[in-house]
Amino acid sequence: xxxxxxxxxEDSSQISLFNGTIAFxxxxxxxxxxxxxxxxxQVTWDEPDLLQNVKCVNPWLVELVPNMPxxxxxxxPPPSKKLQLPNHQDFPFDGQFPMPSFSGN
Length: 105
Hints:
By secondary structure, the chain is an all-beta fold. It has strands at about 1-10, 15-25, 40-45, 55, 65. A five-stranded antiparallel beta sheet has the order 4-3-2-1-5, with no helix packed on it. β1 (about 1-10) and β2 form a beta hairpin. The protein starts with a strand and ends in a 40-residue tail after the last strand.
């Protein structure tokens, strides 16, 4: 499952966004806290060189990202051909629609 996480530098001068994949969910400390509901996320980073010492993160610090393919959000290109409707005698396309005539007294 994909996630993103923001981190601050040690002097809090800069915030960076990192992406990765959750590899495993593990119990925080099964010896000291058996049957604990608290978990850690074991992760693999997209840029492992920058976060070499961070192998597990708190689930509350990450934001899950849907596993959807990245879509190009630019507008669709204009059609290459002009739309042409077939000319049919029962349904004229020249703006002259037959109108019913009502005769009344």
